[in-house]
Design brief:
The complex is a heterotrimer of chains A (about 325), B (about 290) and C (about 525).
Chain A: H1 2-31, H2 36-41, H3 47-57, H4 63-75, H5 89-124, H6 129-143, H7 146-160, H8 173-179, H9 181-208, H10 210-217, H11 222-260, H12 265-274, H13 278-306
Chain B: H1 15-24, H2 26-43, H3 45-48, H4 80-116, H5 118-133, H6 136-147, H7 151-178, H8 181-188, H9 193-205, H10 207-229, H11 241-248, H12 257-284
Helix pairs in contact in B: 1-12, 2-4, 2-12, 4-7, 4-10, 4-12, 6-7, 7-9, 7-10, 8-9, 10-11, 10-12, 11-12
Chain C: H1 6-14, E1 28-33, H2 48-57, E2 62-64, E3 71-73, E4 76-81, E5 87-92, H3 106-116, E6 131-137, E7 140-145, H4 152-155, H5 166-171, H6 177-187, E8 197-203, E9 207-212, E10 231-236, H7 240-248, E11 254-255, H8 263-267, E12 272-277, E13 282-286, H9 304-313, H10 316-324, E14 329-330, H11 354-364, E15 370-377, H12 381-394, E16 399-406, H13 408-417, E17 422-423, E18 425-427, H14 435-442, H15 444-447, H16 457-466, H17 472-489, E19 492-497, E20 500-505, E21 508-509, E22 512-513, E23 519-520, E24 525-526
Parallel strand pairs in C: 1-10, 1-11, 15-16, 15-17
Antiparallel strand pairs in C: 2-3, 4-5, 5-7, 6-7, 8-9, 9-10, 11-20, 12-20, 13-18, 13-19, 14-19, 21-24, 22-23
Classes of the chains: A mainly alpha (about 325), B mainly alpha (about 290), C alpha+beta (about 525).
C-alpha cells in the first residue's frame, strides 16, 4: 500500500522536525530578555523576592537539565504547568484551542463562499471590467490591516447598528456563529483575497489547457467542461493553498483575537510571550507544529488521491 | 504562495511584443504608476510634505482637515499629511528590505538544494518544515524581543523566516527545469555546475519568484504595520502607517482622518504592488 | 452627565454619600476589564488584576479608612497596639462566617497569617517579616512582633493578610499549598473566603463571575446585608477601543482603564458617567545614576546637575495636557502620590524653567548632541507621546534623545541590570503605608533604588531607622527628610500622578476603585 507506506514515512520525518522545533523554542524563550519572575512580579518585588521565585520555578537549574526535563516530560504527554495561569499547560491549550479552530474554519468557509463564485465570474470575464472590479475589491481587502478593519466593523456594525455583539464568543453553536461573525469576516477579507487570486489563475489555466479547448471545440457545453475539469483543478489548488497557509492563518488570528476579545490560542500566545511563561510558550508552539504538520500531511494525501500526476515520494 | 502553479510555462513570444502587450493592460500601467509615485514620495518626502512631520504644536491638536492641514493634525498637533508622506520612506523601505534578502538567500539555497538534492535536500526539508510549522508571528515577535525592537531587527526577523518560502519555490522550479532538455544538455556538454545553475537554471526558474516577490512586498508592509501596532516595528517619532493607524484608531469616531489617511496609503501601495505583480506575470508569461 | 472631578470622586469613595437608590437590590453588574485574573488567592496574587480582586472574595482583619490615612475595623472589631510596640491584640466580631456559612475562627486567622508570612510560599512574605508569632483564644487574636513595626496595622489591612478557610485548604486536592490553592480556585464556589462575593464561574482569559455572599457581615444602608447586587460578571477585553465600544453598545455596565485620550469624549456622553478615582499611581522615569553605563561608556546622567536640568526642562503641565488630556497633576512629593500618608507637599517638583535647565547643563559641561536613550513600553501610545514630547523639550539643552521600545519584561530586566539611561515606569501602592514605595524607589539594598543605582547612605539609614520607629512624629520627620534628600538629587524624572479612569453607565451607582486600585463592588447597585 503506497499510501500507508508514504504516511508512515512522513510521520517518521516529523520526529526530527518536532525535535528541531523544541530546540529552537526552548532556546528562543530563554534568550528573551527578562524571565517569568521579572515579567510577573518584577515591577514591585525586591531582588531577594525575585531570587526566591526563580528558585521555586526551577529556573536556576542548568539549561541542559531544564531541556532534558522538557523533552522527557513532553514524551510522557506532560507539557508542564503554566507559570502565569498556574494550571497544566495541556488543560489550558485544550480549553482555548477549539475557539481558534472554530474561528479559522468559520473564516475559511466564509472565504470560500465569497471567493469561489466570484473567482469563476472573474476568470470567465478575464481582463474585462467585472474581472477588474472583483480583483480590485479583493486587493483592497487584502491590504487592510486587521487591527484597523476590525475596529471599523466593530464601530459601525456592532456598536452603532447593533447587528452583532462587540465581543465574546457565545455558548451554543448558533450563538457562536453570531458572535464570531465579525472576527471571521475580518480574517476572511484576507484569506478570500488569496483564495480568489489562486482560484482565478487555476481556472484560467484549465480554460487555456489544450484538452479543454479541444473539449469546447468539440461542442461540449461549457457547463459540462467547467464542471468536469475546472472544478477538480480548482479544488486541488485551493486545498493545497489552504493547507500551506494554515500556519499563517492560525498565527494570524493573534491580532484578530486581541481586537475582538476572542479567547483563543493566538491571544494566549501573546500573553504567554509577554509574561515569559516558558512552559506555556513551549507547549503552544509544539501543539501548533503538530497541528500544522498533520494538516500538511492531510493536504498532500488529499492532493495525491485527486490528482494522479502528484506522485507520492 | 499564491498563483505559482500557473506560472511555470516557458516564454516563447519575443521580448518586444510582450512589453507591448503588457503596456496595453491598464492594470499594469496603474500598478506601475502607483509604485512610481510611491517611490518618488519615499525618496523625496521633504519636497512634497508641507510641514516637518515631527514638529509638535501643543495648541493645535486633533484639528479637523482644513486648507492649512489637508489631513488634519494628530494628538500632538503634528501635520497628518506630512506624517503620511514621510511614512512612505519607511514603508517602502520595509517592502524592499524585509523581502530582498529573504529572496536572495532563498533563491540561492533553493537552487542549490534543487540541483544537488541528496543529503543537503533532506536537511533542507527538515529546516523548512521546522520554520513553516513554527508560528510565524511568534518567531518574528521573539526575534524582535531578543534583538531589540527597531526596523533593522525587524528585517532580520522577517528574513530569518521569509527566505524559506522563496527557497521552496525556487527548489520546486529548479527540479521542474532539470527535467527539461537544456539542463540535461548542459550536463552532457560538461559545463560547470555553477554555470548550469546560474546561467541556465536560475534565469528560467526565477519568474514565479519575482511574481511572488511583488505580493510579498505588499505583505511585508502589512506585517510591518502589524508589528508597529504591537510597538515592535518603526520607532517613534518616525511616522509609519501601521503606527499612524494604531494611534488614530482610538479616535475613529471623533478624529477619523487620523487613521483613514494612512489606511488609504497602505491599501493603495498594496494595490500597486499587486497590479504590478500581475502585470509582470503576464509580461514574463504571455498567455492570453 | 458631567464627569466627576477628583473631589467629587473622593466624596464617593468615602461612601458618606449613600447612593440615592441604595435600596435597589438585585441584578448583575457587567464589568469589562483590561486583563483577567489568573488566581485570586491572598498570598499568591502578584499581578494587579489578581491583587485588586482579592478584597471581593476575602476579608482582612482591618481595613483602610476611605481617606487612606488610618485603619478601621474589618473582621476584627477592635485592635490595640501594646505600649512597647511588640504586640497587637485584635478582637474578632462575633458570629463571623465564611461564604458557605461555616464559622470563621481564630484558627483560620492563625492559618492565614502563617501562610502569608511563609517566605517559601508568598512573594509578599517580606512585608510581614516583623511577625514573630500569631496566637488566638476564642475571639482574641494576638500577634507578637520581633521588633516594633509601624506598618503592622496597615499590613493587616492589606490583601495578602486576608483570611482564608483553614478547613477548605486542608480538604483541597493537591500535594502542596500552591496546588491546593489552584484547585480551590479552579473549582470555585463558596467557602474559602468571607468577602462580599464568592467565585461562581471562571473561564481562563475570557470571563469570571462573582455571586453575592449571603453570609456577608457588613450591612447596607437599608439595614440588610451587603452586597446589593446578586453578582458581578467580568469580561476581559484587552483592546482599549473595543472595551469602550462594548460599554457604548450597552453590552457591559462599566469599563475600566479608559485611555485618557478618550475621557473627554465619554464625559460628553449623556448615558455614561466618566469617573476619575484618585489613586496612588505615579508615573515617573528612573534615571541611571551610575558613573558608567552598562557598556562601559561614561554616563552623562551620573552628574546630578544634568538630572536636575532635564527635570527643569520637562514641562509637566504640557505632558499632562498631551498624555492625560489634563486629567492628572504634577508630582508634589518625589517618592509617592500626594494621597499617600506622610507625603510632603514640596510644590510642583522642578517646575518648568528652561533658563535654569540651560544654566545647569552649561555648568555640567554637557557637549551639544549628547545622546541619551529613552526606553519605553512597546505598543503604549502614552509612552510614544511622552517620548516625542521629551525629545522636543530637551532639544534646547543639546540633548539628542533616542528611543528604544521594549516589552514589559524586557524593561524590567533592564531596570534590574542597569542597562538603560532613562525609562518609563509607574507605581501603585499595594499597602496603605509609604514604606513599600519609599523602599522601592530610594532604598539601595531593596532594589537598587528602582534600578537607578542611586546610593545615599543618609537616606538608607533613615529608611532603616524608620522601619522600627513607632513614634509617629519621629517617623514623619524621617519621611520628610528622605523626601527632601531624594528630590534634591533627582534620581528620577518626576512626572505626574494619574487617577483611575472607569466609565460606568448611568444604571450603576456606588462602584469604587480605591487609591490602591482595589475594585470595590460591595456597595454597587444596578437599576435596570
Amino acid at each position: 500500500m503506497a499510501i500507508i507506506q508514504y504516511t508512515l514515512k512522513r510521520l517518521l520525518l516529523m520526529i526530527p522536525t518536532f525535535f528541531l522545533v523544541m530546540i529552537i523554542i526552548f532556546l528562543l524563550v530563554r534568550f528573551l530578555p527578562g524571565d517569568p519572575a521579572i515579567a510577573i512580579a518584577g515591577d514591585r518585588a525586591s531582588d531577594a523576592d525575585l531570587a526566591a521565585i526563580r528558585e521555586r520555578l526551577g529556573l536556576n537549574q542548568p539549561l541542559l537539565v531544564q531541556f532534558w526535563l522538557f523533552v522527557t516530560n513532553t514524551l510522557q504527554g506532560d507539557l508542564g504547568r503554566s507559570i502565569l495561569m498556574r494550571a497544566p499547560v495541556t488543560d489550558i491549550i485544550f480549553d482555548r484551542l477549539p475557539t481558534t479552530i472554530f474561528l479559522t474554519v468559520y473564516a475559511v468557509s466564509l472565504s470560500l463562499l465569497i471567493a469561489g463564485p466570484l473567482a469563476f465570474v472573474a476568470a470567465l470575464n478575464r481582463n474585462k471590467w467585472p474581472d477588474a472590479v472583483i480583483r480590485t475589491v479583493f486587493q483592497v481587502g487584502l491590504s487592510m490591516p486587521v487591527f484597523y478593519i476590525g475596529l471599523i466593523l466593530l464601530t459601525f456594525l456592532a456598536a452603532q447598528l447593533r447587528w452583532f455583539p462587540v465581543g465574546g464568543y457565545g455558548d451554543t453553536f448558533i450563538e457562536r456563529l453570531h458572535h464570531l461573525f465579525l472576527p471571521a469576516v475580518t480574517v476572511a477579507l484576507y484569506t478570500s483575497a488569496i483564495i480568489m487570486r489562486n482560484l482565478r489563475s487555476a481556472i484560467i489555466e484549465v480554460l487555456d489547457a489544450e484538452y479543454v479547448q479541444f473539449a469546447r471545440a468539440k461542442g461540449l457545453p461549457d457547463r459540462l467542461v467547467l464542471g468536469r475539469h475546472v472544478l477538480r483543478n480548482a479544488l486541488i489548488s485551493t486545498v493545497t493553498l489552504l493547507g500551506l497557509s494554515i500556519g499563517n492563518l492560525m498565527s494570524g488570528t493573534l491580532v484578530t483575537e486581541t481586537v475582538f476579545a476572542v479567547p483563543g490560542v493566538g491571544r494566549l500566545m501573546l500573553e504567554a510571550i509577554f509574561a515569559r511563561d516558558y512552559p506555556l510558550i513551549q507547549g503552544l508552539t509544539l501543539t501548533f507544529a503538530v497541528l500544522v504538520s498533520v494538516v500538511f500531511l492531510l493536504t498532500d494525501l488529499f492532493q495525491s488521491t485527486l490528482d494522479p500526476r502528484m506522485r507520492l515520494t | 504562495m499564491t498563483d505559482i502553479t500557473a506560472l511555470s510555462a516557458e516564454a516563447t513570444i519575443p521580448q518586444k511584443t510582450r512589453i507591448e502587450l503588457a503596456l496595453r493592460k491598464p492594470g499594469f500601467l496603474v500598478g506601475a504608476f502607483i509604485i512610481g509615485v510611491s517611490a518618488m514620495l519615499a525618496l523625496m518626502p521633504g519636497v512634497f510634505a508641507p510641514y516637518d512631520p515631527n514638529l509638535i504644536d501643543y495648541v493645535a491638536v486633533k484639528q479637523a482637515p482644513s486648507w492649512a492641514h489637508p489631513f488634519g493634525t494628530d494628538m500632538l498637533g503634528r501635520d497628518s499629511l506630512s506624517r503620511v508622506i514621510f511614512a512612505y520612506t519607511v514603508n517602502m523601505q520595509m517592502a524592499i528590505l524585509a523581502t530582498v534578502f529573504a529572496m536572495t538567500i532563498g533563491v540561492i539555497v533553493g537552487a542549490l538544494v534543487g540541483y544537488y538534492r541528496g543529503v543537503a535536500d533532506m536537511v533542507f526539508g527538515r529546516v523548512v518544515d521546522a520554520v513553516i510549522t513554527f508560528p510565524f508571528l511568534v518567531l518574528v515577535i521573539s526575534v524582535v524581543a531578543v534583538l531589540g525592537p527597531g526596523l533593522i531587527n525587524m528585517y532580520i526577523a522577517i528574513t530569518l523566516v521569509g527566505w524559506v518560502y522563496y527557497a521552496r519555490l525556487m527548489r520546486a522550479e529548479v527540479i521542474a527545469q532539470m527535467g527539461n532538455d537544456y539542463a540535461g544538455a548542459g550536463i552532457v556538454m560538461g559545463y560547470s555546475d555553477r554555470r548550469i545553475i546560474f546561467r541556465h537554471l536560475l534565469p528560467n526558474a526565477i519568474t514565479p519568484v519575482i511574481v511572488y516577490w511583488m505580493t510579498d512586498m505588499a505583505l511585508a508592509i502589512l506585517l510591518g504595520s502589524s508589528l508597529g501596532y504591537l510597538g515592535l516595528g518603526a520607532q517613534p517619532p518616525q511616522a509609519e502607517w501601521g503606527v499612524l493607524i494604531a494611534e488614530g484608531r482610538n479616535f475613529i469616531t471623533t478624529a477619523w482622518w487620523l487613521s483613514l489617511m494612512p489606511g488609504i496609503a497602505i491599501v493603495l501601495t498594496g494595490l500597486g504592488f499587486s497590479l504590478l505583480g500581475d502585470g509582470l506575470a503576464d509580461l514574463l508569461r504571455p498567455r492570453g | 452627565m458631567r464627569g466627576k472631578l477628583l473631589a467629587a470622586a473622593v466624596a464617593a469613595a468615602t461612601a458618606l454619600t449613600t447612593p440615592a437608590m441604595a435600596q435597589d437590590r438585585g441584578g448583575v453588574l457587567n464589568f469589562a476589564r483590561y486583563d483577567g485574573s489568573k488566581l485570586i488567592d491572598p498570598i499568591y496574587a502578584d499581578r494587579n488584576p489578581d491583587i485588586w480582586m482579592v478584597g471581593s472574595l476575602f476579608d482582612t482583619l482591618l481595613r483602610s479608612s476611605p481617606d487612606g490615612n488610618s485603619v478601621v475595623a474589618g473582621l476584627a472589631e477592635s485592635h490595640e497596639m501594646s505600649d512597647d510596640g511588640l504586640s497587637v491584640t485584635l478582637t474578632l466580631q462575633e458570629g463571623l462566617q465564611f461564604s458557605d456559612g461555616a464559622p470563621l475562627t481564630g484558627d483560620d486567622v492563625i492559618f492565614s497569617l502563617n501562610r502569608a508570612r511563609n517566605p517559601d510560599l508568598s512573594p509578599w512574605a517580606g512585608l510581614l517579616g516583623s511577625i514573630d508569632n500569631v496566637s488566638a483564644s476564642d475571639l482574641t487574636v494576638t500577634i507578637s512582633l520581633k521588633a516594633p513595626d509601624p506598618t503592622i496595622l496597615s499590613m493587616l489591612a492589606t490583601f495578602n493578610t486576608a483570611i482564608v478557610s483553614k478547613s477548605v485548604f486542608e480538604a483541597a486536592d493537591g500535594a502542596n499549598d500552591q496546588e491546593k490553592s489552584a484547585s480551590i480556585f479552579a473549582a470555585g464556589g463558596a467557602g474559602v473566603g468571607s468577602g462580599p462575593f464568592y467565585l461562581s464561574g471562571f473561564e481562563q482569559g475570557s470571563s469570571m463571575s462573582f455571586s453575592a455572599n449571603p453570609n456577608y457581615w457588613k450591612v447596607g444602608a437599608d439595614g440588610k446585608a451587603l452586597p446589593y447586587v446578586d453578582g458581578v460578571e467580568f469580561q476581559i477585553i484587552p483592546d482599549d477601543a473595543t472595551r469602550i465600544l462594548k460599554l457604548q453598545a450597552g453590552e457591559v455596565d462599566a469599563a475600566e482603564f479608559i485611555p485618557f485620550s478618550r475621557v473627554a469624549e465619554l464625559e460628553a456622553d449623556p448615558s455614561i458617567n466618566m469617573n476619575l478615582y484618585p489613586s496612588t499611581r505615579i508615573i515617573y522615569s528612573p534615571i541611571n545614576t551610575r558613573e558608567a553605563r552598562a557598556d562601559g561608556t561614561p554616563n552623562p546622567l551620573a552628574d546630578v546637575r544634568v538630572r536636575q536640568a532635564i527635570n527643569y526642562a520637562t514641562n509637566k503641565d504640557a505632558l499632562i495636557g498631551l498624555v492625560l488630556q489634563g486629567a492628572g497633576k504634577p508630582m508634589t512629593s518625589p517618592l509617592m502620590a500626594a494621597a499617600t500618608q506622610l507625603s510632603s507637599d514640596l510644590g510642583p517638583l522642578y517646575g518648568y524653567d528652561m533658563e535654569k535647565a540651560k544654566a545647569l547643563i552649561a555648568d555640567a559641561g554637557v557637549a551639544p548632541g549628547t545622546k541619551i536613550t529613552f526606553t519605553t513600553l512597546a505598543g503604549s501610545a502614552d509612552d510614544s507621546t511622552i517620548f516625542a514630547a521629551l525629545q522636543q523639550m530637551w532639544a534646547p539643552l543639546g540633548i539628542a534623545l533616542e528611543v528604544e521600545q521594549v516589552d514589559g519584561a524586557t524593561r524590567g530586566a533592564k531596570n534590574r541590570s542597569g542597562e538603560f539611561d532613562i525609562h518609563t515606569y509607574g507605581w501603585v501602592n499595594d499597602v496603605n503605608d509609604p514604606s513599600q514605595v519609599v523602599g522601592w524607589l530610594g532604598h539601595t539594598p531593596t532594589a537598587k533604588a528602582v534600578g537607578t543605582g542611586w546610593e545615599n547612605p543618609e537616606f538608607n539609614s533613615l529608611f532603616e531607622a524608620s522601619a522600627t520607629e513607632i513614634n509617629a512624629e519621629t517617623r514623619a520627620d524621617q519621611y520628610a527628610q528622605m523626601q527632601k534628600l531624594y528630590a534634591d538629587s533627582a534620581p528620577l524624572l518626576f512626572m505626574y500622578e494619574t487617577p483611575f479612569a472607569v466609565a460606568v453607565s448611568n444604571a450603576v451607582e456606588g462602584y469604587v476603585q480605591t487609591p490602591l486600585g482595589n475594585n470595590i463592588f460591595e456597595e454597587a447597585t444596578v437599576s435596570r
